[in-house]
Design brief:
alpha+beta; 4 strands; 3 helices; four-stranded mixed sheet
Length: 89
């Protein structure tokens, strides 16, 4: 089964970032001012689909964090390529 990642470019705190999410949660936060190629290189075998709502909660929490309004995140994270040890850390 192919990994599907939903992506969208968001403007957060004056910079643009690509966010990617699976059905299980956020799996990618790009470097600011980078292109979609960064996500493609991180997940070369994934099917990338434009997000509709999948990255909105993450974008909201990241914006709050970058503006000093949040210290902890509540969004679910997904690490589809991580080993069990990496996921435990």
């Amino acid at each position: 089964m192919m990994l599907v990642i939903y992506y969208r470019r968001h403007n957060l705190a004056g910079h643009t970032y690509y966010l990617g999410a699976t059905a299980q949660g956020l799996c990618f936060v790009g470097s600011w001012a980078q292109t979609l190629a960064e996500l493609q290189s991180f997940y070369p075998l994934a099917e990338l689909r434009p997000a509709t709502t999948q990255t909105e909660a993450a974008a909201t929490e990241l914006a709050q964090y970058l503006n000093g309004q949040r210290r902890k995140f509540t969004i679910p994270l997904a690490w589809p390529q991580a080993t069990p040890l990496q996921q435990a850390v």
